[in-house]
Amino acid sequence: MAGKGKKGGVTIVIRKEEGGEHGHHGGAWKVAYADFVTAMMAFFLLMWLLNATSEEQRRGLADFFSPNNVLARANSGSGQPFGGRTPHAEGASVSDSGAVRVERGQAPFLLDIEEDGDTPAAPPSPALPPQPDQTEVPHAAQPDTAAIPDAALREELARRERVALERAAEDIRAAVRDDPALAELARQLVVEQVPEGLRIQILDAERRPMFAAGSAAPNERARALLQQVIRVAARLPNGLAIAGHTDATPFRGGERGNWELSAERANAVRRLMVEGGIAEARLQSVTGHAERDLLLPAEPTNPANRRVGITLLRQLPESAAR
After folding, report:
1. pLDDT tens for residues 230-257?
2. Residue 230 neighbours by CB distance under 10 Å
3. How many other β-carbons are positioned within 10 Å of the β-carbon of residue 197?
4. CA dist., res. 251 & res. 212, Å (int)
5. 189-194 sheet: strands from edge to edge
6. Are 154 and 316 a contacting pair, CB within 8 Å?
7. Closest to 228 measured CA to CA, from 173, 309, 160, 295
8. Is 68 in contact with 51 (CB distance < 8 Å)?
9. Which positions fall inside the OmpA-like domain (predicted)?
10. Shortest CA distance to 104 belongs to which of 144, 129, 133, 143?
């Protein structure tokens, strides 16, 4: 604001400042304060790390920030940063802890038949020459299976297979017996061990057929029984053979006869087993026997002769083990 006036012919101008700015104090103190806070945070972080880590972990952290590891020529890989446990260890900065140490010792004598743990291995043949010092045999050396007589080994494998097949037979019987919907069909299921393996047969009964007359399609009863057989067979590695049978009553179906009917029923069972999860490669044979292999030879027209047999084949025939 200015006022104007005249005095003695001279113009006098008076200016009045109504307000003024404060002087600039500078911002250097803010930078210094931020540096101080950062330093204190780093200090407390360091204190926390020293308290929360072990000596071994602190060595690993030192290795991580050590420039020596960058130019190390040797490989690392102990799981710690850049391998080395400490930059002051001798040699290249690689791990000097946790290395695998191989020592020689007595080699174990193991065979597949020892897996169960309940049957000891057969003793070595007395005709074998004395064994060398076992402490000189590398741990990775494979045992000499010739140390067990061939006949004893085959007999033991055959015995174990018989046990496995018998367990499978009991599982099938129990599944049918304990299922109220299948219990009445238990008499139409025959499960037994034969020289070829475990044979499961599904039979017709009076007024209870498994297939409609002249049909190759199994009915619901047959499918329910087959599902139990498939469930157990899927757990075993054995090959499978499927056979269809008829009774001695001639089947007149145009160009089809008992041969065709029995083979078609066996093939229908094969399809159901594959659909149920049985690998196709396990199927060894699918055959039709017509009336040539009667279950009850003295009663050739008995409905029980109309049946389908599924055999879990032995991997080692019983005759070969003797």
Report:
1. 999 999 999 999 999 999 998 877 788 9
2. 18
3. 23
4. 13
5. 189-194, 197-203, 307-313, 240-245, 283-288
6. yes
7. 173
8. no
9. 198-316
10. 133
Q: Which domains does the chain have, with CATH numbers?
A: 40-88 (no CATH), 154-321 (3.30.1330.60)
Q: In this structure, what token pair is assigned to residue 55?
A: 């000596």
Helices and strands counted in the chain (H then E): 5, 7
What's the token pair of residue 201? 């047969």
Give the whole-angstrom CA distance, residue 265 versus residue 202.
Answer: 12
Question: Hey, what are 148's tokens?
Answer: 């067990």
Place of tokens 């940063």: 81
Tell me the average pLDDT of the chain.
76
Sign of CA dihedral 235, 236, 239, 242: negative
pTM, to two decimals:
0.54
Residue 186 has pLDDT above 80, yes or no: yes
Q: What phi and psi, each to the nearest 5 degrees, are found at residue 13? A: -110, 125
Lowest mean pLDDT, pick from 21-25, 80-84, 267-271? 80-84
Backbone angles phi and psi of 30, in degrees to 5:
-65, -40
- What tokens appear for 250 in the block? 């001639």
Place of tokens 């004395």: 130
Q: Which residue has the tokens 């001695």?
A: 248
Q: What whole-number distance in Å separates Cα of residue 234 and Cα of residue 237?
A: 8
- Which amino acid makes up residue 175? A
